[in-house]
Give the backbone structure.
Amino acid sequence: MSQQTATREPQEQREGAWYKVARFSAGVLLHTVMPCRIVGADRLQREPPFILISNHNSMLDPFILACKIRKHYVTFLGKKELVKSRFGKYLFSKLHMIDVDRGHTDMEAMRACMRTLRGGGILGIFPEGTRHHEGVMEQVESGVSLIALRSGVPLIPVYIRGRLSLFHFTRAWVGEPIPTEDLRAGGINSETAEKLTHRMTKTFRDMVREHG
């Protein structure tokens, strides 16, 4: 057994019933009353670890990213407010969410992200940190750049046009991986993180220009 396969097995075993039910239910919704077409979905079928980054239009956006990845689950970052109640804490822990304190440097969340990637997992991040109704990524969290640079895993952009809603057709596009190798070669620091942040912003602006 290869070392890469060995690191992925614990993740697949921990997937759990809650996540499977949520992913199955999302797949049904996205093929019926909330139709969504994902262009380039084959780019999501790569072997982990990798990072998914997307603009954020609605609370249902994670389902768009997760429903097309059948062999592995996605660990999403979510705001700490979602786990304030006992039920919320239980539910989102079963869905493998990493809660993050927005507006502050949350080192424990950063460490949890790195553990996910080093363990051969998939990390889902909405870099804007909140829902952005215009759909253009204007403010990108710098922590995302640091995670991408430190992990060195592929960084896959997904642009979602519009909000999922009943009987409304939504489209999403999966882009090519955003290059990071040249920046990592220059060292992992605030300057290279800022350059990657600008690169991510430009990538999404280009996707909006092409598909929006």
About this structure: DSSP finds eight helices and seven strands in the chain. Residues 1-13 have pLDDT under 50 and may be disordered.
